[in-house]
């Protein structure tokens, strides 16, 4: 007897080894199949429950898995029950399953070790999606999709396991009406309401798993059962499009669709597999697919069935000879083509001519059938470059393909069960059988040219194929020799629209040099893109290198030239859409500013924001006028506001260098900057905060703000984060968009190839051609209609009439008075001056140095603390020489019972002292969060700058662990400013994934109570980027 046969036995066939894992009702063991001499895994039921009739579920799992027999489903080899002769310590009659043994652990295990890349996620889970599609096609719903039920082979391939609670269309009686089966955090909302689990419920669970795989957290993380159920049913979560802006749009949009509360709006598992396959393919080198001798000829399903019906007849078709380029290629073979007689008048016409047809012999079974006859076939010469496309894609159950000009579903940062105005995406229910390949309808494209072969018999077949299938059959035979990826970096406010249009475009892609163009949209803030481009866009630091760049404004294109030393004007770029900068305010505030009779000027903003008495006299309110705008170094609305203020300044001559020395100009600019209550990284940050404050009945942190007109439209529709979508109810307090009467600037959303602004050897001739094709598509009237429907203006400065009507007067049809943008050198000079003129910062940085900060970060050689201190040191560049910056550390009992220690006092920035202190930090002890937060706010209050932005930036990787500290309720009460106290905003950062849902909620409440902003850096490797966003507020 060998060592592997020495363990407990099941009959004379299976010898058990060690335990691989345990669950609530069973344990899985490594085992050896003596008869077939192979390793296996055996699942043995440990505890049977009457409510789940678990033994019967074991039998069901065996039957269902045997029926499916799919490469990405864990195979079940045998099923049985323990008997008296077995030597395992389990009750007689206990059921067991014998399965294939997988040695790679579970997907949950892999995620716990290191957060997988998007390419790894797509590459692994595409197989699970295919397995799910196969199950759904035969009427099986899994009902327990989660990372623990995805097992990995030794090579890392994923397989779906545990069909024990799966539901088949066969009657079983194992689940009573209203039973909730599966794991709660992955359970679809309709199942929580007592509805039966159908395939869309699996897709919802898959969406939760996909979200978790990409972000390192689940979309719903509430700790109590009741809170979790409420959150799932509400449908509110934070979209990956916001937290992971570099994520391919196709992935974030697919996750949002999976988590749609309305089951018919979710994609099918087959569509999930397609999206994941496309994403995984983008990370791999393109491959050339060449038909080989003996390979089957792809024929659309309509053509593979017998053709029946009346004879085909019609008038004669006449015209000149048909000609075209030579057709060559490998042998074509396939099954016999047969069908009923095709009758009609004789086929005649002029000779068919063209260049010689060359290539290997055409082989295959004989083609049989009655004679083919019909009217003469002729027509004008058809010629053009040889084109191809992907084979027809399977249909998308539950979704009607978008037609040109129809509304395009746009992903949202939130989803909600109430969807006023949302685009309907419902369609027929998912099929109960295997999907039938149906080609998507071809949108008319001016660039599309069809290949016409020269052999008479093939001509007729292809004509039938085109008519029936809606696509040239030769596309299916020849196809594209791989993909040509085109990466487009788009600014956040339009990335949702452009991404949805890219999906439409990819459904019927252009062909360039024999390859199918596949457009990938990545979201990049305009200012950050300038920085990346100025450095040559190193992918290690900034992610995938774009081939095309579409910032919000052409001003940014000119600034890149200033960075790289370009001479002359920036390239004139076509505009995708337009949106003027406006002053946005609630209706009551807008009326005080003169709306709707007149719009405010930049001088009005400066006067009211800098003079409480003047605002009280105008409004009757003792609440100060608080004006917000974004940081001009990174955000377009902030940049345009800075430029508009200069262009509206009294005494300006147009010579920027001399103007910035004029007292009148500097005084006006300084007054306007001092009127700014705070800056921000994006306008979306402000609007998201406004929405949360309204929902939690907190006072608004701003009176008015400078934003794009389109952003106001999106916010008023209930979507603060993504243009054109309506996944939330509209806010109760809508915003009015007012054009500054002394002038404003317009975001023209240019479209440029990257090699036109920097040296970009990766942008090849083929990619430039692909970029031109995609631009033609975006400028087409049908696609421009989508931009207008999302609140953008067209090139004639017109809003969509429906947008105007729905705004009920909150948007103006009239064009704004606009300034011409200064030359790039002048813009650069103004931004340099802004650092001296802007409102000064008074910021205390507080870093967690508890013991958990010494943990190593997966994928790096650094600890959490090392990454945090490196990021903090890099963030010092955001502060000017006149800003005050202090530094604390905290853990527990650093000085008696005090949990914090001052390292650098709050004073004018001393970069050398701050850097030295950061390098000295060492992790120890626990996390004294609450007492430290209160002490930090008190310290800043005691040294507050009445003309500055007073704030605390607090980074922590864990919950409060000081049992003697104040309570969260006391902390929040003390953070809120009392009457006469200066406001100190708190910007907490949740660092890593160790914080509980309660701990994260406390951090968020701290931000809300002080008018700050809560940030998350779930992946510690992203902390430098997150800290950059935080520091953009000052």
From TrEMBL:
Q: Does the keyword Magnesium apply?
A: no
Q: Where is the VWFA domain?
A: 842-1030
The chain positions of domain Protein kinase read: 14-282
An MF annotation (GO) of this entry: ATP binding
Q: Which residues bind ATP?
A: 43
Q: Where is the signal peptide?
A: none
What InterPro entries does its record include? Kinase-like_dom_sf (IPR011009), Prot_kinase_dom (IPR000719), Protein_kinase_ATP_BS (IPR017441), Ser/Thr_kinase_AS (IPR008271), VWF_A (IPR002035), vWFA_dom_sf (IPR036465)
Keyword Transferase tagged = yes
Give the Pro residues compositional bias ranges: 308-379, 391-410, 427-442
* Composition bias type Low complexity, residue spans: 283-296, 380-390, 415-426
PROSITE patterns to which the protein is assigned, alphabetical: PROTEIN_KINASE_ATP (PS00107), PROTEIN_KINASE_DOM (PS50011), PROTEIN_KINASE_ST (PS00108), VWFA (PS50234)
Kindly state which keywords UniProt assigns to this record, in alphabetical order: ATP-binding, Kinase, Nucleotide-binding, Serine/threonine-protein kinase, Transferase
* Annotated region described as Disordered, given as residue ranges: 283-445
Q: What does the record give as EC number?
A: 2.7.11.1
Spell out the protein name for this chain: non-specific serine/threonine protein kinase
Q: Tell me what organism the protein belongs to.
A: Cryptosporangium aurantiacum
């Amino acid at each position: 007897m060998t060592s592997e046969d020495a363990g407990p036995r099941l009959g004379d066939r299976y010898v058990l080894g060690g335990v691989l894992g345990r669950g609530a009702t069973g344990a899985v063991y490594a085992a050896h199949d003596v008869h077939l001499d192979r390793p296996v895994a055996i699942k043995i039921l440990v505890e049977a429950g009457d409510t789940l009739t678990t033994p019967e579920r074991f039998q069901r799992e065996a039957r269902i898995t045997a029926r499916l027999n799919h490469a990405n489903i864990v195979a079940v080899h045998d099923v049985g029950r323990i008997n008296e002769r077995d030597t395992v310590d389990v009750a007689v009659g206990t059921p067991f399953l014998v399965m294939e043994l997988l040695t790679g652990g579970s997907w949950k295990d892999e995620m716990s070790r290191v957060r997988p890349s998007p390419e790894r996620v797509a590459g692994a889970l595409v197989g699970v999606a295919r397995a799910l599609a196969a199950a759904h096609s035969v009427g099986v719903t899994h009902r327990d999709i989660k990372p623990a039920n995805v097992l990995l082979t030794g090579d890392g391939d994923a397989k779906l396991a545990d069909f024990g609670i799966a539901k088949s269309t066969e009657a079983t009686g194992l689940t009573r009406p209203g039973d909730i089966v599966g794991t709660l955090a992955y359970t679809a909302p309709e199942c929580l309401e007592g509805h039966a689990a159908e395939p869309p419920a699996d897709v919802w669970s898959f969406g939760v798993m996909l979200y978790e795989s990409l972000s390192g957290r689940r979309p719903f993380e509430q700790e109590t059962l009741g809170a979790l159920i409420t959150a799932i049913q509400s449908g509110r979560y934070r979209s990956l499009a916001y937290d992971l802006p570099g994520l391919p749009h196709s992935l974030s949009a697919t996750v949002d669709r999976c988590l749609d509360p309305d089951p018919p709006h979710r994609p099918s598992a087959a569509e999930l597999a397609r999206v994941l396959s496309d994403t995984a393919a983008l990370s791999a080198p393109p491959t050339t697919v060449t038909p080989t001798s003996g390979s089957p000829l792809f024929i659309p399903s309509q053509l593979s069935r017998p053709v029946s019906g009346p004879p085909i007849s019609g008038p004669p078709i006449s015209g000149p000879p048909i000609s075209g380029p030579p057709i060559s290629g490998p042998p074509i073979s396939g099954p016999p083509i047969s069908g009923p007689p095709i009758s009609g008048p004789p086929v005649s016409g002029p000779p068919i001519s063209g260049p010689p047809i060359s290539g290997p012999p055409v082989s295959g079974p004989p083609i049989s059938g009655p004679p083919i006859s019909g009217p003469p076939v002729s027509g004008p010469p058809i010629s053009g470059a040889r084109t191809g496309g992907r084979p027809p894609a399977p249909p998308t159950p539950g979704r009607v393909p978008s037609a040109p000009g129809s509304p395009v579903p746009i992903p949202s940062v939130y989803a909600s069960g109430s969807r006023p105005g949302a685009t309907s995406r419902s369609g027929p229910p998912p099929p109960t059988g295997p999907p039938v390949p149906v080609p998507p309808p071809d949108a008319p494209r001016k660039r599309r040219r069809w290949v016409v072969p020269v052999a008479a018999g093939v001509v007729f077949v292809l004509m039938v194929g085109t008519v029936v299938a809606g696509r040239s059959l030769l596309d299916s035979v020849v196809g594209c020799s791989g993909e040509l990826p085109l990466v487009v970096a788009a600014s956040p406010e339009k990335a949702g629209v452009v991404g949805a249009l890219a999906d439409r475009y990819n459904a019927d892609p252009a062909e360039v040099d024999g390859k199918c163009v596949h457009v990938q949209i990545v979201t990049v803030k305009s200012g950050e893109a300038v920085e990346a481009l100025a450095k040559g866009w190193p992918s290690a630091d900034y992610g995938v290198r774009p081939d095309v760049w579409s910032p919000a404004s052409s001003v940014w294109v000119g600034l890149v030239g200033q960075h790289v030393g370009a001479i002359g004007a920036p390239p004139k770029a076509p505009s995708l859409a337009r949106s003027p900068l406006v002053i946005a305010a609630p209706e009551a505030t807008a009326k005080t500013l003169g709306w709707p009779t007149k719009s405010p000027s930049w001088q009005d903003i400066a006067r009211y924001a800098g003079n409480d008495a003047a605002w009280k006299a105008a409004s009757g309110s003792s609440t100060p006028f608080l004006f917000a705008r974004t940081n001009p170094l990174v955000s377009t609305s902030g940049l345009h506001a800075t430029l508009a203020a200069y262009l509206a300044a009294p005494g300006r001559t147009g010579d920027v260098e001399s103007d910035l020395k004029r007292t009148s100009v500097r005084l006006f600019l300084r007054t306007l900057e001092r009127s700014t209550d705070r800056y921000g990284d994006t306008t979306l940050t402000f609007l998201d905060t406004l929405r949360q404050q309204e929902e939690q009945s907190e006072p608004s942190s701003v009176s008015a703000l400078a934003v794009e007109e389109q952003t106001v439209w999106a916010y008023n529709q209930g979507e603060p984060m993504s243009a054109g979508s309506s996944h939330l109810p509209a806010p109760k307090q809508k915003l009015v968009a007012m054009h500054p009467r002394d002038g404003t600037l317009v975001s023209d959303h240019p479209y440029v190839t990257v090699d036109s602004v920097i040296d970009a050897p990766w942008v090849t001739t083929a990619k430039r051609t692909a970029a031109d094709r995609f631009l033609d598509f975006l400028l087409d009237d049908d696609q421009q209609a989508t931009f207008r429907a999302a609140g953008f203006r067209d090139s004639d400065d017109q809003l969509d009439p429906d947008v105007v009507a729905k705004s009920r007067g909150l948007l103006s049809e009239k064009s704004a008075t606009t300034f011409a943008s200064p030359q790039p050198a002048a813009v650069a000079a103004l931004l340099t001056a802004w650092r001296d003129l802007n409102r000064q910062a008074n910021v205390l940085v507080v870093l967690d140095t508890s013991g958990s900060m010494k943990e190593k970060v997966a994928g790096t050689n650094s600890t959490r603390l090392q990454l945090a201190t490196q990021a903090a040191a890099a963030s010092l560049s955001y502060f000017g020489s006149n800003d005050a910056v202090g530094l604390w550390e905290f853990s527990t009992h650093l000085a008696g019972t005090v949990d914090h220690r001052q390292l650098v006092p709050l004073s004018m920035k001393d970069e050398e002292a701050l850097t030295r202190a950061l390098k000295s930090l060492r992790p120890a002890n626990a996390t004294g969060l609450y007492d430290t937060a209160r002490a930090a706010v008190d310290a800043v209050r005691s040294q507050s700058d009445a003309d500055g932005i007073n704030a605390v930036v607090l980074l922590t990787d864990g919950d409060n662990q000081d049992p003697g500290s104040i309570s969260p309720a006391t902390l929040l009460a003390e953070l809120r400013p009392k009457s006469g106290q200066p406001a100190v905003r708190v910007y907490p950062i949740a660092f890593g994934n160790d914080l509980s849902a309660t701990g994260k909620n406390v951090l968020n409440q701290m931000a809300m109570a002080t008018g700050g902003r809560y940030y998350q850096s779930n992946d510690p490797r992203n902390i430098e980027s997150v800290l950059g966003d935080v520091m953009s507020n000052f």
